[in-house]
Target: HTH marR-type domain-containing protein
Amino acid sequence: MLYVLTRHGASTLAALAEHEHVTPPSMNRTVNCLVDEGLILRSSSPEDGRKVAITVTAAGTDLVAKTRERRAAWFAAELATLDPGEQHALQAAIPVLMKLADS
Model:
């Protein structure tokens, strides 16, 4: 969810719940925990004061960036262990993987 907020900006609880395929009450519990950790903020939506906008904080953005760096380093190390044929097969699969990642 932090990644979604860093990539797409502010969101509502309902939109986040739909994106993550969970119920709004479940998403509310997750949001509450992330607010308590200082990773996201709740505020009145600029478009409609009755709605709550959920945004990522600088600490949340930093956590996402550090997580991506660690994951990229791990993945690069794992790729280096593959033989050339396996690396070529992965290279050919990149367009399909990108399509799946965007959905």
